[in-house]
Amino acid sequence: MPAFNSSKYIATTIESVLAQTFNDFELLIIDDGSTDNTSEIVNHYCKLDTRITLFCQKNQGVSYARNQGLQIAKGEYIAFLDSDDQWLPNKLEVHMQHFAKSSNLGISFGRIEFMSFNGKPTGKLSNSQLFQITPKDLYYENLIVTPSNTVVRRTVIDSVGNFDSNLSGTEDAELFLRVAYKGWKVEGINKALVRYRTNPAGVSSNLYRMEEDWKKFNAKVETYAPELVNKHYQRARAFFLRYLARRTLRNQISSHMGVNFMNRALKTDWKIIYKEPRRTILTMLAVYIKNVISNIIVSTNYRIPI
């Protein structure tokens, strides 16, 4: 669990781990240079439960923190959890059952239940593809959504490497793709196992920065899967721009920004309408209607000075 100034949420997150029905785990919390009382809260839990260990480092970013945890971890399986998300009680137990069924399963993941910034469950679940996942599918879209949704075999990390610390926002998507490209099975479970907090103050809210990071992601993928990039770049970029358009809706960001992303997605590869008609058309309608309503409100509120 990487943590940076996480005092507002980390107690609830730790409690969600301690509530697991599968209890043979170690919880490693990497404090990435917090300036609040995150470490104080974690130390309280360390005294209550010997399975919890705190490591502190100077601020180096979430990928460095996760990689530090990977170096320390002793388990046969690795699970990730961001300090503002929550696991549902059967998360680890269900994943262990999943791994027992397939020796080639490299990454196991489930459905995501979205919760509000204030921690209230929304009842909305992710609807990502779960089965027969190929590297192309993971190039088009981060089906797993967040590292908090994964459990990975330790042997997989040993064979493909850690998170790329040069990426900031797509480092998880790149690792998941790299795992699939190396021949490991990536497969989902049709159950909600994680609650994912929509945090407007997080990295994901800076959408233009995410777009720049996707370019770095693409350059990294091209180093080991050039044929994948050569064949699918336009569609992958269009899907990512459509994803950013959807994020403007989820994070209640400017409708003009949503229109910008959606227009550029269609300009990059308009055939995504045929590839995924429901998601593309619904995103288009939501983004464009929101923009029209926003313009009407601005127009009706405008007053000519006398």
Give your account of this protein's structure:
The protein has 306 residues and is an alpha/beta fold. The protein folds into two domains: 2-205, Alpha-Beta Complex (Spore Coat Polysaccharide Biosynthesis Protein SpsA, Chain A); 225-301. Helices cover 49% and strands 17% of the residues. It is built from twelve helices and nine strands. The protein has helices at residues 10-18, 38-48, 62-72, 91-100, 135-140, 154-160, 171-181, 207-224, 226-250, 255-268, 272-275, 277-301; strands spanning 2-3, 27-32, 52-57, 77-79, 86-87, 105-115, 121-125, 150-153, 185-197. Strands 4, 5, 6, 7, 8 and 9 form a six-stranded mixed β-sheet that branches. Strands 1-2-3 form a three-stranded parallel β-sheet.
Task: Provide tags for this entry.
12 helices, 306 residues, six-stranded mixed beta sheet, Glyco_trans_2-like, hexosyltransferase activity, 17% strand, Nucleotide-diphossugar_trans, Glycosyltransferase 2-like domain-containing protein, alpha/beta
Q: Give the H and E element order.
A: EHEHEHEEHEEHEHHEHHHHH
Major pleated sheet: 6 strands, mixed
Could you say which overall geometry the principal axes of the C-alpha atoms support? globular
Total number of β-strand segments? Answer: 9
Q: Can you tell me the CATH architecture of the largest domain?
A: Alpha-Beta Complex
Number of domains: 2
Q: Would you identify the CATH H-level superfamily of the largest domain? A: Spore Coat Polysaccharide Biosynthesis Protein SpsA, Chain A
The percent of residues in helical segments reads: 40-55%
Structural class: alpha/beta
Mean pLDDT: 94
What's the CATH topology name of the largest domain? Answer: Spore Coat Polysaccharide Biosynthesis Protein SpsA, Chain A
Q: Specify the CATH class of the largest domain.
A: Alpha Beta
Q: Report the end-to-end length measured between terminal Cα atoms.
A: 59 Å
Q: C-alpha Rg, in Å?
A: 20 Å
Task: Provide the low-confidence segments as ranges.
Answer: none
Number of helices: 12
Strand content of the residues, in percent?
A: 15-25%
Pfam families: Glycos_transf_2
Protein name: Glycosyltransferase 2-like domain-containing protein
GO molecular function: hexosyltransferase activity
InterPro entries: Glyco_trans_2-like, Nucleotide-diphossugar_trans
